[in-house]
Task: structure prediction
Amino acid sequence: MGHPLHTMIRDLHRRRGRERRGLCLAEGVRLVEEAVSAKVEIRAVLASPALDSTERGRALRAKLADRVTITEATDAELAELSATEHPQGILAVIVPKEWTLDDVMVTKASVVVVLDAVQDPGNVGTIARTAWALGAAGLIALPGTAEITNPKTLRAMMGALFRLPIVAAPPERVAEWAARHRMTIATTAADGVPLGRGEIGRPLALVLGNEGHGSQSELARSATAMVAIPLVPGAESLNVAVAAGIILYGVLRAR
Result:
């Protein structure tokens, strides 16, 4: 019979398992460090000798020893249970931070990112990390967007989930919430106002669409502003995460 923690970890690689247990996985030294720093509840830790191969890993082990029981595994066992190619000798079971729309603190100058069916976990995580780093007030994931607690999404976020309000919500609820806060809803379009050449009203809900089809939701169709990134002739589009970073920088630096 397998170790109970190994069984739980395998289950948490499945969305259904994460939803049923209310838990998710943090893999690698950096992400577990972020969880510790943000005082996220850690339920269990699986560690292997690889963790002790660096000073940083040894320091993390010492911090965790005061908080949770550490279950030992071989490097091969941990690698088999991890979704990453190089798990760095540590995998933690955590209670993800549960944010609501009320946690997004909207001021007159706020910018909130809304993801409209952005399906790639890496893109979602990168956008969340960028939004946090540049000072966005929050991130909202509409239906069809990659699951926030997907291990790939969490790795790309690099701890953003622990510090930036990230909420999954249907478009009608987001529309009501945005109206209550008198937010401008903007989306991206090739024929929109070029970034930097016109002001967009604040507070702002910036809707970023699916990698292949753009924004399709009712919320996007209700947008009263459209913004474009000027590209050289012949360049059709940018990766959605890259576009998000450029637009957020351009909009937020105008504060």
The longest strand covers residues 184-194. The two ends are 59 Å apart (CA to CA).
